[in-house]
Structure to design on (60 residues):
């Protein structure tokens, strides 16, 4: 199965953002600082996942 770098980074960003959002929403209020943390988690995951190449397929 071939997964493009774009799809891989989108899924990684959504997972990181969701994890940060769930943690931030534990008290029922998301502050500006928590919003920034969520945004940075998404952007950081997108950037890191985009840069790391997929493992080459063997013989395909």
């Amino acid at each position: 199965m071939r997964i493009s770098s774009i799809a891989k980074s989108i899924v990684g960003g959504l997972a990181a953002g969701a994890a940060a959002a769930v943690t931030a929403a534990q008290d029922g209020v998301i502050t500006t600082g928590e919003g920034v943390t969520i945004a940075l988690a998404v952007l950081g995951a997108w950037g890191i996942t985009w840069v790391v190449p997929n493992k080459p397929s063997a013989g395909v």
In short: The radius of gyration is 15 Å. The longest helix spans residues 5-24. Helices lie at 5-24, 32-51. The mean pLDDT is 85.
